[in-house]
Amino acid sequence: MPPSSHKKNPSPSSSIPRHIFSHPAEEAFATILDYYGVEWEYEPRTFPLERDEHGNITEAFRPDFYLPQQDLYVELTTLRPKLSTKKNHKLRRLKELYPEVNVKLFKRKEMRDLLVKFGLYDQAAKIAGTKSQNLAP
Amino acid sequence: MSVVTLSRQLGSLGSQVARQTADLLGYRLVWRDLINESALRAGAPSTALAVIDDLGLLGISLSKKEVRAFRKALRQVMEELYATGNVVIVGRAGQITLHNKPGVLHVRVFAPPDLRAERIAARQQISLENAAAQVEASDKNRRKFLKRFFKTDWDDLQLYDLLINTAHLNVEQSARLITQALASLPGMDPAGSFG
After folding, report:
1. Contacts 24+ apart (CB under 8 A), B17-24
2. Band of the pLDDT at A6, cuts 50, 70, 90?
3. Do A69 and B32 touch (CB under 8 A)?
4. Residue B134 is nearest to which of A69, A107, A118, comparing CB atoms?
5. CB-CB under 8 Å, B137 with A38
6. Which percentage of chain B shows pLDDT scores above 90?
7. What is the ipTM of this complex?
8. Which of B92, B173, B177, B187 is least enclosed by beta carbons within 10 angstroms?
9. Which residue of B has its CA nearest to A115?
10. What is the pTM of this model?
């Protein structure tokens, strides 16, 4: 497993290496996966989407999580329509080029409300006060 | 060859009872891998997350096609487990898929909601109010799962052979009760094998 992988942990307050995340929403998502005991890896793979005439990668997509037990990549998407559109375009391209790869988009709005409801306050507070996620390179 | 299916409520200690039962019997414990395998066979891996998501935290909505494919795959995996035998299957409609099969004991582990919330609050170090919300959401979603996938009422007592209230019985006692009940099934020999 790569260094950023994480095996299942039954406790929501586990010792996840939080510093690896580029956005609090990702941290919250990891917390949820840990709550359910689902194994995850953080940004383990980059998929080249476009190359120039020299073979250099000009566009790529790196999903936020890979869940090995489900063989599923997960991308947390922003609620901003402009960024969502770009991300959807990349996802469509990814599915064209890598049809064997399973990817699922999650919006983060639903997570926040429920994290509050079920007592995961720290994560919810972080999500509430931050800007939308930047696009992966 | 025999099988125990165990349905449990969040905070009922059902998971611990399942582990202890499997240990006592020397059976394999099947849990999450049942869901993952079914979802992969169904060609809809995100279905696994939707099914795992007891509290509805991820908000995954499934299409009818995904539900049908998952249900079919789940039945297949369950039948294979039954054919292999000597297994304790936790949750996910074992009580329905293997209903009326010889050599299968269907168990429901439950406890009062207040007690379950207290256990969750203590385990996760959260408020009683938050824990109660988890218990309520989990019950709702597990009930919804059986309704949507199998059109069956989770609380239908006809689905179970043995009901265990862990308000009064601890994990060890509950597991021993299950092993005794299993040995008492028609066709079972004293060693717990189905004849």
Report:
1. B17/B109, B17/B164, B17/B166, B17/B171, B17/B174, B17/B175, B17/B178, B18/B88, B18/B90, B20/B171, B20/B172, B20/B174, B20/B175, B21/B88, B21/B174, B21/B175, B21/B178, B21/B179, B22/B88, B23/B175, B24/B175, B24/B176, B24/B179
2. low
3. yes
4. A118
5. no
6. 69
7. 0.82
8. B187
9. B57
10. 0.81
